Amino acid sequence: MLEGRLEPPKASPLPYSPRNRKNAVSQQQEIDLAADGAEPAARPLADRMRPASLDEYVGQTHILGPDKPLTRALAAGRIHSMILWGPPGTGKTTLARLLAARVDMRFVQISAVMAGVKDIRAAVAEAQKTQQTTGQGTLLFVDEVHRFNKAQQDGLLPYVEDGTVVLVGATTENPSFEVNNALLSRTRTYVLRALDAEAIRSLIDRALNDADRGLAGLGVTMDAALRDQLAARSDGDARRALNLLELAADIAAGTEDRTITQAELEEVLSAGLRRFDKGGDYFYDQMSALHKSVRGTDPDAALYWLSRMLEAGADPRYVARRITRMASEDIGNADPRALRIALDAWETYERLGSPEGELAIAQAAAYMACAPKSNAVYKAFNAAWADAKNRGSLEVPMHIRNAPTRLMKDLGYSDGYRYAHNEDDAYAAGETYLPEALVGTRYYEPAPRGLEIKIGEKLARLRERDATHAPRQTRSHPEGDDGGSGN
């Protein structure tokens, strides 16, 4: 286990070996973009088209625009530790590389998926050695930093604090949940946004027109409408856009006119998936959007978000379960049929499977969105739960206790209980059923919508009748028992 400060090893950095997970540090992967030895043409288009400077970097103007904190720091020739949080293809790795180049720092990249304690130590040791021999600082880029465990994250703290490294962590997950508070407090979090279609289009144009790094050497053409279509369907992911463009260009290069057509574009787009991560932020964001659309009585939005989730691979059973929850939480007794419809949709899906059964889930979602809304039961249950949890074990009043034996009856169990069916309208006016300390408490207040209008009117009439009867003097202990020792 990694505890406290990591002492760097005295040995030289580990040599390359497949058995040490390619060393995760990959001999530090310094900023020279061609230093990996691969011929430019052999590298993927998305890698070849990485910006060579911040001037070529597209998007993220909300953090790189004029007078932004990061821009001011770069202008002063310094940089701070940070977490870059954003969806795939928004330029997290590229930005880290360009930041290091701008302030003349060594760029060292490790993957939290592959790296272990040994790799961290090697990176720190090399950073200290470089600082001592050349005075150059090191930017340590940790990809998928959320995959580091607590001990590994804590192990970075002293080196971030003393300036041995400037840490740049990249994550697609919410850092407030996945990154330790201690590390968050020593870094600044920047949110990188999915690129808009205009930004993606500029990257597509650049790749098609660049003869050195791009596709111009292939002589492939693509008309403006198809470029716009590719940009719009790349889901804000620059890497995905360039990968799809490269696939389409490879197909077109084998044709006589070397033109990317609609058919070729559709061929490569058909394999693509929308941005979605089961169990991650996008998953819960889209589920939240579905729930809020239902609550907001917008069936169109509800069906859209449902379709987005199912099309991207969400488990229909999970969605059906959440819709069933919505029926109780947001509709409740305003329309009790909603719960039955949700359960029927769930059962229908279990019988039919995908894709046939998904229509039943859509039917339920549309019904939930259009149904009258009430969270009265939800609020009442939460309030009653809070009292049950926080008010201690309040005694059951004697008159509503079970009395199966003669002894219990002699002690007053069930004494004075009024059988409601023998009363007018099957209602024992003035009777109480709550513990003595809670008599008069109101948890359930029906909403003035749907069936709860009638429920509310009924309760109001019954409470008026209660007011004409003297309240019962409740007892919580058997006769002769003072609730103490019993002596």
TrEMBL record:
UniProt lineage: Bacteria, Pseudomonadati, Pseudomonadota, Gammaproteobacteria, Salinisphaerales
Alphabetical GO biological process terms: DNA synthesis involved in DNA repair; DNA-templated DNA replication
One protein family per Pfam: AAA_assoc_2
Protein task: DNA-dependent ATPase that plays important roles in cellular responses to stalled DNA replication processes.
Stretches assigned to the AAA+ ATPase domain: 78-195
Listed name of the protein: Replication-associated recombination protein A
Gene3D superfamilies (UniProt xref): 1.10.8.60, 1.20.272.10, DNA polymerase III clamp loader subunits, C-terminal domain, P-loop containing nucleotide triphosphate hydrolases
Keyword vocabulary terms for this entry: ATP-binding, DNA replication, Helicase, Hydrolase, Nucleotide-binding
SMART domains, per the entry: AAA (SM00382)
Keyword Hydrolase recorded: yes
GO terms of molecular function: ATP binding; ATP hydrolysis activity; DNA binding; enzyme activator activity; single-stranded DNA helicase activity
Family statement drawn from the similarity comment of this UniProt entry: Belongs to the AAA ATPase family. RarA/MGS1/WRNIP1 subfamily.
Source organism per UniProt: Salinisphaera hydrothermalis (strain C41B8)
Annotated segments matching region Disordered: 1-29, 462-487
